[in-house]
Specification:
This protein is an alpha/beta fold. Helix content is 38%, strand content 24%.
């Protein structure tokens, strides 16, 4: 396709008709890693949930490969949803199912593959995130980093063009978090997957991001967008500078 893979246009999001963010607009090109950043409570996860269709925007639209997800229905909506996978901050793995069965689930629900093919694909996805050999383990037996990797494997099950990740490094030690960053880069480079990642971890931002979009609760919108290094070194906005230099508010 020509043009951006994701286009967010004049988006307003909030609750009860009251916007938390307004006038949100940005684009994500195929193969890019875009991070959505900002202080806690600024609406990062809320924006993500509107982008993937869990909530309906108060205004504006999100185009996925040229199609407005919120305005689509039936087969068209399902076709758009097949273009992306989502891994939530908690991992959201089913605790009563093994790792392999968690990854098999989307394939069983949304494809007509036979059992042998489903098994093969699920093992391949686990291999791609470094978890081959852990298929029989239950989520409770996994470390935090392994749970994050398993969630990414499940999000990849249907070979989406886009992966949305909500705080993939949250709660992880620096070494494990660096491993998640490296996994994102590997999947981006080797498979051309486009990523939209919500994070507030500075190390991850600089490690993975082609571009960053910074939200601000006071401004109720975007206050900076660009390469993280440029935002850190050249943004004139004081709240952007405080974020990147880890400075307390006056």
């Amino acid at each position: 396709m020509s043009g951006p893979l994701i286009s967010v246009q004049g988006l307003a999001v909030g609750f009860g008709g009251q916007p938390l963010l307004e006038g949100i607009g940005f684009e994500v090109e195929q193969g890019q890693v875009l991070v959505i950043i900002g202080e806690s409570g600024c609406g990062k996860t809320l924006l993500l949930k509107n982008m993937i269709g869990l909530y309906r925007p108060l205004a504006g639209r999100v185009l996925i490969a040229g199609t407005d997800l919120a305005a689509s229905e039936g087969d068209q909506r399902r076709a758009v949803q097949r273009k992306f996978g989502v891994a939530y901050q908690s991992g959201a793995l089913f605790g009563s199912m093994s790792l392999l069965d968690n990854v098999r689930l989307p394939l069983e629900e949304y494809t007509r593959l036979d059992d042998a093919a489903i098994e093969l694909v699920a093992r391949l996805k686990l291999s791609q995130v470094g978890l081959l050999g852990s298929e029989a383990k239950m989520p409770a037996e996994l470390s935090g980093g392994m749970q994050k990797r398993a969630a990414i494997a499940r999000a990849m099950a249907l070979d989406p063009a886009i992966l949305f990740l909500d705080e993939p490094s949250a709660g992880l030690d620096p070494v494990t978090a660096a491993g998640i960053d490296q996994l994102i880069l590997q999947l981006s480079d080797a498979q051309g997957i486009t990523f939209v990642v919500v994070t507030h971890e500075l190390a991850s931002i600089f490690a993975i991001a082609d571009r960053a979009v910074m939200l601000d609760r006071e401004a109720r919108g975007i206050i900076a967008a660009g390469k993280p290094e440029d935002l850190r070194d050249h943004s004139p906005h004081p709240r952007v500078a405080r974020f990147f230099h880890r400075e307390a508010a006056p």
